[in-house]
Amino acid sequence: MILNVSGRTDIIAFYSQWFMNRYQEGYVDVRNPFYPKMISRIFFQDVDAILFCIKNPLPFLSMYSKITHPFVLQVTLTPYQNDIEVHVYHKDKIIEAIKEISYHIGVENIYIRYDPIFFSVKYDLDYHCKAFEKMCRLLSGSVKHFIVSFLDLYRNVQIHAAELQFHEPSKEELQEFAVRFIAIAKKYNMTIQTCAEEERFGKYGFLIKDCVDQELAQRLTGKTKFRRWKARGRENCQCVEMVDIGVYNTCKHLCKYCYANFEERKIEAFHKQHDSMSSLLIGNLKPDDIIRRRKA
After folding, report:
1. In this model, does residue 247 exceed pLDDT 90?
2. Contacts of 215 (CB under 8 A, 6+ apart)
3. Over 80: is that where the pLDDT of 231 sits?
């Protein structure tokens, strides 16, 4: 089993003490978001590896040495300002944290997600190219690989459409994006790929692979066969199956493009229900909950 920590919220940024409590306790409970009475109990002895998906990696600096499982980091680093990413931590601090973590865990175990990309009058292609080059320059030697994807019309994106002011990129705009981004990546000896996109830009030099593919999963776990992860709304995703331990509508970054916050009014209420000593990320177990051990 590969654990995803987490595509539903930034556990490391906001709930790191809870995660370490669970890790030391040896198990974590996950409430099914679609069938709330069903609880998956995951023992860390059944976990082969962990994918940490993080937007603020600073708390991880005090955590990584305590993680004994094989793991990789995917740090989302985007060029938007606080009109779009309301509570994201200072980018210069994030970059310094990435460099320090990379030094300790190895450049092959850290990936940067420049994700999602959207184009607007303010955040046009030139803006993205300048921001991407600066990012590559600052992270040169600490990062080898970037993952990019484009904005999808999730509920939260539609709610904030007036603030995002995005437009659908033209074919010519996408071609220019691919040409310019791959040139920048090569300049700094980095590779780049798309995530869950129909157009993968292989003809321009982008790697044709998935974020957590069979090769990476085998390197981490030593196992050779993995089922495909069937994530809702991500039909183009070919990653191996992972188990996400997060909860939707609990990320306090409040990014206006976020797919995981689709009912923002719930965030503060959920956050108040968080108990770092609970086996669940939000709330506590109830007498009528049905708990089943998950091994795969």
Report:
1. yes
2. 209
3. no
Q: Each residue of 249-270: pLDDT tens digit?
A: 999 999 999 999 999 999 999 9
pLDDT of residue 198: 85
The amino acid sitting at 110 is I
- Burial per residue of 225-259, b for 16 or more beta-carbon CB atoms within 10 angstroms, e otherwise: ebeebeeeebeebebbbbbbbbbbbbbebbbbbbb
CA–CA distances in Å: residue 286 to residues 37, 185, 223:
9, 50, 36
The closest alpha carbon to 143, from 220, 85, 77, belongs to: 77
Q: How confident is the model at residue 225 (pLDDT cuts 50, 70, 90)?
A: confident
- Report the chain's terminal Cα–Cα distance, integer Å: 5
CB atoms within 10 A of CB 190: 18
Write out pLDDT tens, residues 179-211.
999 999 999 999 999 998 989 999 999 999 999
Beta strand segments in the chain, E: 2-5, 27-31, 38-43, 49-54, 71-76, 110-117, 145-150, 191-194, 243-244, 290-293
Backbone angles phi, psi at 228, to 5 degrees: -75, 140
Backbone angles phi, psi at 56, to 5 degrees: -120, 100
- Cβ neighbour number for residue 73 with a 10 Å cutoff: 21
- Looking only at the bridges linking them, the beta strands covering 145-150 and 110-117 are parallel
